[in-house]
Amino acid sequence: MKRRDFIQYAGLGAGAVMMPSLLMGNTIPVEALLEPGMDVLIKKTLADVALNTAKSAGASYADARIGRYLNQFVFTREDKVQNVVNTESFGIGIRVIANGTWGFASTNNVTDDGIKKATLQAVAIAKANAKIQKDPVKLAPVASHGEVSWKTPIKKDFKEVPISEKVELLLSANAAAQNNGADFVNSALFMVNEQKYFASTDGSYIDQDVHRIWPTFGVTAIDRGAGKFKSRQAMSAPMGMGYEYMDGLASEKIAGPTGMNLYKNSYDIIEDATLAAKQAKEKLTAKSVEAGKYDLVLEPNHLGLTIHESVGHPLELDRVLGYEANYAGTSFATLDKWKTKDFKYGSDIVNLVADKTQVGSLGAVGYDDEGVQTKKWDLVRNGILVNYQAIRDQVHMIDQNESHGCCYAQSWNDVQFQRMPNVSLEPGKDKYSIDDMIKDVEKGIYIAGRGSYSIDQQRYNFQFGGTVFYEIKDGKIVGMLDDVAYQSNTQEFWNSCVKICDKDDYRVFGSFFDGKGQPSQISAVSHGSSTARFNDVNVINTGRTI
Q: What is the overall mean pLDDT for the chain?
């Protein structure tokens, strides 16, 4: 599935049909999710088999990743359960450098013999590749961490919550939507647990337990007389949390300017579904927007997708260097722009950071899949492009000697490579609320939630829609709009950013299934921001044809 298909995952009722694209592993009974994984001492012994075999076969470097990947997906429609799927995948991936070249192999035969065979295959692949590789791999140094562990700080493990409770919650949300005017409603819960063990010839043995969750839904209201229908998707954000995210009690809620509660570290799916039905009905009679220039007030759930596409992807170093050109495109943010040290990516108040340590985010881990301890670093500071996202064998290309710690593989069966970390817009420094921002707008549009989008192969020219739109006149919201999309280019857009709300408004959006690479892999990543204003942006009417 393409990235856009996942982000626009409105037809959740098709979940049962689409499941093969989502599964990574074998279907298992629900009780098997609770079975303990392999003891960490056994993992270390098996990892050493790979490392010692690789060195004996002539590898100058080797790492091994033993992974157990557990997934649970629940799909419902109206008053019915469509599908509940539990999967498990277990195996080991071995990556080596031999004769200055990478080699990789994997196996689900996690025994001494199976690991030795896969390791020798990885070394053989590296030596074969070395015959045609011109430049040897250059690895940035990394500290030896010894034996360490890291775990997502969860309060409630989804595996310990009965399926009946999850189903009841989704069906209750569906009922709330139908009771408030929705004709159709689909809902789903995606829950993931990655149990990963990493070992390398650099001397690190790292055990990690990573959790992620994504509740979502789509509601549709129909005007049969007019032959029209409108939909509204969930305002939830996928999070790096446990099932406590579904309690709806663990965090303060930010009162949005249109009656919406904007969620931070917990989510009330029933409350959101109730409002979604009302807003879907309201969209049926909403005024169609007049095309023109507007000041846009963009809330974080919406702005996160714009950050993802116009900042996250174009600042991936492999894309900048052209390594992704055959599949996902290139980047306008080329090295010559970075080297000038004065390229204006955005206005002076725009500070964009990469951060793999942000608690509750999808990308939060203690160590990446190369054994590098994760960190936070600047991408754009005071509007100036200052850095990219790079891993151990890339950073020398930008004259740096320390990996950024953003290497990831979707499973033990896939080779790790550079993936987007959490990329976020820092909040404003001065006290400033959403209400304050709207009061300052004479002619504008408030946009909440994600919608359709289009962006070119260089991540420069783009168009973004949204979930709901409200017209702002003379400092007040005066009614709902429809058929709204805005067009700009990345540099023009970020230079039009004139105001950002303070940290009290800071929230995250997430992409649970972000695709990249050939063969394609998925990863999960968050994008935080506070509500921000962009002045004089071109808005088009998507419902009118010429």
A: 93
Q: 182 forms bridges with which residues in the sheet?
A: none
CA distance 402 to 375: 11
| Distance, CA of 88 to CA of 26 (rounded, Å) | 5
Q: What is the distance between the alpha carbons of residues 263 and 310, in angstroms, rounded to a whole number?
A: 24
Q: What residues have CB less than 8 Å from 56, skipping those under 6 apart?
A: none
Comparing CA positions, the residue from 477, 4, 9, 489 lying closest to residue 258 is 477
Q: How far apart are CA 68 and CA 112, in angstroms?
A: 18
Element (H, E) at 288: strand 287-288
> Which residue stretches of 209-287 are H helix?
269-284
Estimate the crossing angle of helix 163-179 against helix 269-284, to 10 degrees: 30
> What pLDDT score was predicted for residue 263?
79
pLDDT tens-place string over residues 302-334: 999 999 999 999 999 999 999 999 887 999 999
Strands 287-288 and 476-482: parallel
Q: What is the secondary structure of 374-410 as a DSSP string?
A: P-EEEEEETTEE---B--TTTGGGGT--S--S-EE-S
Say how far apart CA 300 and CA 447 lie, in whole Å.
10
Of the candidates 465, 442, 434, the one whose C-alpha atom is nearest the C-alpha of residue 529 is 434
- Backbone dihedral angles phi then psi of residue 249, each to the nearest 5 degrees: -125, -15
Phi, psi at residue 28, to the nearest 5°? -135, 160
Would you say the C-alpha torsion 336, 342, 348, 353 has a positive or negative sign? positive
Q: How would residue 17 be classed by pLDDT, with cut points 50, 70 and 90?
A: very low
Give the number of other Cβ atoms within 10 Å of residue 478's Cβ. 11
- Nearest in space to 66 (alpha carbons), one of 88, 47, 87, 39: 47
Two structure tokens written together for 75:
């799909």
Predicted structure pTM score: 0.94
Instruction: Give the C-alpha separation, 206 to 367, whole Å.
Output: 8
User: Which uninterrupted H or E stretch holds 515?
Assistant: strand 507-516
The model's confidence at residue 23, banded by pLDDT at 50, 70 and 90, is low
**DSSP code string of 468-493:** EEEEEETTEEEEEEESEEEEEEHHHH
Q: Is the dihedral of CA 248, 249, 252, 254 positive or negative?
A: positive
What pLDDT is recorded for position 327?
Answer: 83
CA dist 103 → 124, 356, 371 (Å)? 7, 27, 18
Nearest 5°: the CA angle 343, 344, 348 is 135
Let me know how long the chain is: 546
CA distance linking residue 154 with residue 149, whole number of Å: 15
User: CA dist 507 to 99, 300, 355, 361, 434, Å?
Assistant: 47, 6, 14, 10, 13
Amino acid at 50: A
Enter the tokens of residue 93.
């991936």
pLDDT tens digits along 125-177: 999 999 999 899 999 999 999 999 999 999 999 999 999 999 999 999 999 99
Task: Report pLDDT for 24.
Answer: 72
- Those residues whose C-beta lies under 8 Å from the C-beta of residue 453, and which sit 6 or more positions away, are 4, 7, 305, 306, 309, 462, 463, 464, 465
